[in-house]
Every structure is written in structure tokens, then in C-alpha cells.
Specification:
The protein is of the alpha+beta class. It is built from five helices and five strands. The strands form two sheets. A three-stranded mixed beta sheet has the order 1-4-5. Strands 2-3 form a two-stranded antiparallel ribbon. The structure holds flavin-adenine dinucleotide. The site of flavin-adenine dinucleotide has 12 residues, from helix 4 and strand 1.
Length: 188
């Protein structure tokens, strides 16, 4: 097995390293102190194609791979871990879920703007009584005609409440699809 970085992965590492030195590090301490969200930095990350590295070009991405994606997250986190977490959540648990399981309509509506960096996503699993133990999820989703009624409380959700957060995928307990089986946990 060849563990050397590909030309593209090396380019991502070098570009992100330079970006962190020049743009992120000079602002990181002040951002930490003020708690302000760095919309300008996110826009520049989007311009560099960081928000869509592993997704195909037809879905707004760069057609790269997940090793490249994680090199980018690692380098960003060197300067400011908030940016690494923001990128990780948007790509790994929101955009990737849409890419793997979403309908074409959902991909066009949410994945494309996310991969282009115009919007970001959030994933809500953790609850006051369910963190490591995701099976203890209490939030419920009950069908009501063509819709679902969701009730519950989530906490510690990265990216939530930001101006450009367009989609939050949450986990919720649903009744088992087969009689006698245990409840299921699905994402909405
Ligand atoms: C920076 C940050 C970002 C986050 N972003 C998100 C997000 O976007 N979406 C989201 O849903 N959640 C998010 N979370 C929440 C995170 O997923 C939970 O905090 C995590 O799952 C732990 O759950 P908890 O806080 O309830 O702790 P608990 O599960 O209560 O764990 C408390 C302690 O008990 C230990 N422990 C737990 N179970 C066991 C066991 N069976 N055996 C031995 N030890 C155990 C744990 O290791 C830990 O030390 C984020 C958290 C942080 C810190």
C-alpha cells in the first residue's frame, strides 16, 4: 500500500497551510475571545473549494477524496479548531448523508449549495440524556398524513443558528416497521 500523498492531496495540504498562516492565525485569538462567527473566512474557504472537496463536480464539489478532505480539516484546526469542526460537520455528517441517501431533489436543494460553500449544515444527535449512548434518544417522530411530527430536545449542535445554516439533520425515534420489533432511530 502506498501511503504517500497524491499530488492533489499535497496541494490541498500546502494551500490550506498557507491559508491558515495568512488568514486564520492572525484572527484566531480575537475570534475566540469575541465568540464572533467568521463569515468572511468561511467565504474565502468556499472560494478555495474547501467545502466540497470529496463531492463530484456535478454536485458542486471538487471531485477529490476523503483523505484530502481530512488533511484540509487537520490543517485548518492547526489555526482554529472551530473551522475544522464546522467543515467536518458540514461535509461528513450532513453533505455526505445527502450524497449517499438523499433523493436527486434533496441533493440539488441542499448538497449543491453546501459543497459550493454557500450554505452549511448541522447534525443533531445529542440530547440531555443521549450523547455517547445514542440509543437512549428520546426525540420522537410520528407520521401524520404526508408529514412527520417531531418532538424532543437536542443540545451541543455545531453550526446551528448561523445565518447560512440551511439544513439540520436530526435523529429521532420511530415506531418499528415490523410488529414486535424494537423502535428504530431514523434521521430527518
Ligand atoms: C465541540 C463539540 C461539538 C459537538 N457537536 C455536536 C454536533 O454537531 N451534533 C451532535 O449531535 N452532538 C455534538 N456534540 C456532542 C457530542 O456528540 C457529545 O458531547 C458526545 O456524544 C458525548 O455525549 P455527552 O456529552 O452526553 O456525554 P456522556 O455520553 O454522558 O459521557 C460523559 C462521560 O462518560 C463517559 N462514558 C459514556 N458512556 C460510557 C460507557 N458506556 N462506558 C464508559 N464510559 C462512558 C464518556 O467517555 C465521557 O467521559 C459536540 C460536542 C462537542 C464537544
Amino acid at each position: 500500500m502506498d501511503f504517500r500523498l497524491t499530488e492533489e492531496q499535497s496541494m490541498i495540504r500546502d494551500t490550506t497551510h498557507k491559508f491558515v498562516d495568512e488568514v486564520v492565525e492572525p484572527q484566531a485569538e480575537e475570534l475566540e475571545r469575541s465568540g464572533k462567527y467568521p463569515y468572511d473566512i468561511i467565504n474565502r474557504m468556499a472560494d478555495l473549494g474547501m467545502m466540497g472537496i470529496p463531492f463530484p463536480v456535478e454536485y458542486g464539489g471538487s471531485g477529490g477524496d476523503w483523505v484530502g478532505m481530512h488533511i484540509c480539516i487537520e490543517e485548518l484546526s492547526r489555526g482554529d479548531a472551530t473551522l475544522g469542526a464546522l467543515l467536518d460537520v458540514t461535509t461528513s455528517v450532513v453533505a455526505q448523508e445527502l450524497y449517499e441517501f438523499g433523493t436527486e431533489e434533496q441533493k440539488q436543494k441542499w448538497l449543491v449549495p453546501m459543497a459550493q460553500g454557500k450554505e452549511i449544515g448541522a447534525f443533531g444527535l445529542t440530547e440531555p440524556g443521549a450523547g455517547s449512548d445514542a440509543g437512549a434518544t428520546k426525540t420522537t417522530a410520528v407520521p401524520d398524513g404526508d408529514e412527520w411530527i417531531i418532538n424532543g430536545t437536542k443540545q451541543f449542535i455545531t453550526n446551528i443558528g448561523l445565518d447560512n445554516a440551511s439544513l439540520v439533520i436530526i435523529t429521532a425515534r420511530t415506531k418499528a416497521s415490523e410488529a414486535g420489533a424494537r423502535d428504530e432511530i431514523n434521521t430527518f
